[in-house]
Design goal:
single chain, alpha+beta, 3-stranded antiparallel beta sheet, 1 helix
């Protein structure tokens, strides 16, 4: 061990990275069945998801992340048949 201080000179390099904000997007599903008037539409909701399965910034609830998941929710909500409309939403 020595009683001296060693000084090392170095140059700091800074890099700037610009990240674009993510766009929230997904599908909304609306359903109507035969027992309701044709102008009565209801929103279809998906099954409960595991925590962390969905990114709440890129696909906030109640949007479905894919068209297939929206169709699955419609099929589950309309076991006797009916009409389903899907709308893609980009925020």
């Amino acid at each position: 061990m020595s009683d001296s201080i060693e000084v090392k000179e170095d140059v700091a390099v800074v890099a700037e990275i610009i990240m674009q904000p993510s766009k929230a997007e997904g599908y909304m599903a609306f359903i109507t069945a035969g027992q309701f008037p044709p102008h009565y539409w209801s929103q279809a909701y998906g099954a409960l998801e595991q925590p962390g399965e969905r990114d709440p910034y890129k696909c906030p609830y109640p949007l479905f992340p894919t068209r297939e998941k929206a169709l699955e929710a419609c099929a589950k909500a309309l076991p006797q048949g009916g009409t389903c409309k899907l709308v893609k939403i980009v925020l």
